[in-house]
Amino acid sequence: MQTTKGSEMIFIYLKLADVVTLFNSLCGLLAVIIVQDGFTYLAPVLILAAAVADGIDGYLSRLFSGSEIGANLDSLADAISFGLAPVAIMYSFVNGKANYVFFAALCFYFCCGILRLARFNTSDQELPYFRGLPITAGGIILSAYILAGEDHFYVSIATLLAVAIGILMVSRITYMKARKTGILTPIALIFGITILSYALNVNYTHSMAGVLLGVMVLYVISPAIKRTV
């Protein structure tokens, strides 16, 4: 009886932001499942959808105030959608051509992502910046690189990406929190077009993924740009 009551309580105290966070985690779960069935490009598209949900739940949490479990729930969802899922998708994408270095790089990325989330949960979340590259950004970069298409995919580059992102996630480099409408609107538009383009023609998705990769590279190097300005 106590277990049933506890289950009822958890659903009662869920807020709208938490529901969106659960959607984020489900996108990650579905991505891991469908990539095993050959949905090579739909899986990373779901990671982009998870990233959109991750942005929306943060906005809703700030707008309406989050629940007591919101922050921890968000980190658990991010671990699935931007930690586990991109690794599973990328490993499946190489289709048996992975070497031990590539496999180690993916493991390194995953461990760094988990450490990044743990540090975030135990730090001051009201800071105006992120310490270390957010795992969401890492998952987007890996997914966008896959979505750019087989013609542009190289195991060596994917390996370097996984290692570099992993290092940046656990670093003390500060990254801005993009919350201004002038910044969010064009980024949201790029995400939306990239996701919707999959329903029209995957070639459009490849092109938009290149644009998305460019945006993410700018974000990755933004601390260096900020210092030189």
What does this structure look like?
- The protein is an all-alpha fold and 229 residues long.
- The protein has a single domain (2-228), classed as Up-down Bundle (Four Helix Bundle (Hemerythrin (Met), subunit A)).
- The protein has helices at 2-12, 16-35, 42-64, 70-93, 100-121, 135-147, 155-170, 181-200, 202-228; strands at 129-131, 174-176.
- The protein has a two-stranded antiparallel ribbon.
- Mean pLDDT is 90; it is low at 1-5.
Any descriptors?
229 residues, mainly alpha, Four Helix Bundle (Hemerythrin (Met), subunit A), two-stranded antiparallel sheet, 9 helices, globular, disordered N terminus
User: What's the gyration radius in Å?
Assistant: 18 Å
Largest sheet: 2 strands, antiparallel
The name CATH uses for the topology is: Four Helix Bundle (Hemerythrin (Met), subunit A)
The helix tally amounts to 9
How many angstroms does the end-to-end distance come to? 62 Å
Summed up, what is this model?
By secondary structure, this protein is mainly α.
Question: How are the secondary structure elements laid out?
Answer:
Blueprint: H1 2-12, H2 16-35, H3 42-64, H4 70-93, H5 100-121, E1 129-131, H6 135-147, H7 155-170, E2 174-176, H8 181-200, H9 202-228
Antiparallel strand pairs: 1-2
Helix pairs in contact: 2-3, 2-4, 3-4, 3-6, 3-8, 4-5, 4-6, 5-7, 6-7, 6-9, 8-9
